[in-house]
Amino acid sequence: MRLLVTGGAGFVGSNLVRAALRHGGYADVRVIDDFSTGVERNLAGIEAEVIRGSILDGEALSRAMLGRDAVVHLAALPSVPRSIADPVSTHAANATGTLCVLEAARRADVPHVVVASSSSVYGANPVLPKDELAWTRPMSPYAVSKLSTEAYALAYQACFGLPTLAFRFFNIFGPGQRHDHAYAAVIPRFVHAALRGEPVVVHGDGRQSRDFTYVETVCRVLLDAVTRRVQHAQPVNLAFGNRIELQTVLTQLEQIIGRPIERTMLAPRPGDVRHSQADTGTLRQLFPDVAPTPVEDGLRATVEWFRGWLPAPAPRERAGHAEALGSTVAVTSPS
Ligand code: NAD
User: Fold this and answer.
1) Pocket test for ligand 1, best of 4, 5, 34 (most atoms within 8 A of CB)
2) Which of 105, 161, 231, 293 could form a disulfide with 214 if both were Cys (CB 3.0 to 4.6 A apart)?
3) How close is the Cα of 163 to the center of ligand 1, in Å?
4) Which domains, ranges and CATH numbers included, belong to the chain?
5) Residue 261 near residue 300, CB atoms below 8 Å
6) pTM, entire model
7) pLDDT tens string 25-55
């Protein structure tokens, strides 16, 4: 199986490349990534061919498609706040980029394309859990771009007979996820701050909930999808119905880390949805053999990964840690 992973230097992509090489049958894995949000260290020690280029560059993309049996298309600018700050570049990478990937795959006769959409497409629809036929109402340019990602993939299936599968990822977490940029996701930010004994920033009251999935589970589903060439005429939720409030995540992290975590509460962010939970019927029907890693086990593995990766604290920081150990949980007022 010769696999192309777009966005392979990113969080999900690099975990997928590792899993593909580890589980055999995927001796030949190629990556195309422009390293806009992905990082070199994610691919350190991985024996994959890396094309450093944009999916918006036709020549680089055609090279990437040559001789591939499947494409997992993950390349995107994946952030709601970033898309509000700069909607046009989000549209270019996520919507136009997906169209370019599908068109290049079609021209190169690649027999299967899996794409990553997002639960953000449900947006203002309050129903829980959300099944794939529930109405969509994107609340951010990012969500719009992901709706077009899945729509293009399904249109290529309908118009050109290209076998495609459009997953709606919910909230994925795990090793390799960045904490260190303005648009970082919540769990890596929590884990990083907590391990350093710093306050974690919570937008909103902490009662908002997300359907979290450990990245290893997502990779198992993706590899099963490409191995069996699964296609589907509707988008497919990729989550297991684990709706957890952010404050529960923090409590679990306190138990794993063994000390209280200070919270700084800020105003909710525009474009963020309040609750999110997947209906898992279609996923379980298409992927009956994939059992999810429990969220708490995933959190433990994520903490371990961050522990191994963080530089050792300087002596002054260690003193700060000791103070944090003795402190009680402080909740500052919303700004
Ligand atoms: P990530 O930012 O870590 O990875 C995205 C990768 O795409 C990066 O390596 C980036 O450099 C690359 N990229 C961006 N624009 C590109 C371009 N024009 N050409 C080539 N490469 C480009 O994000 P992630 O968390 O790994 O997300 C992977 C996919 O899953 C994205 O499509 C995202 O929208 C989707 N998704 C992720 C989550 C999640 O919880 N992580 C949730 C819903 C959907």
Assistant:
1) 34
2) 293
3) 22
4) 2-173+214-238 (3.40.50.720)
5) no
6) 0.92
7) 788 999 999 999 999 999 999 999 999 999 9
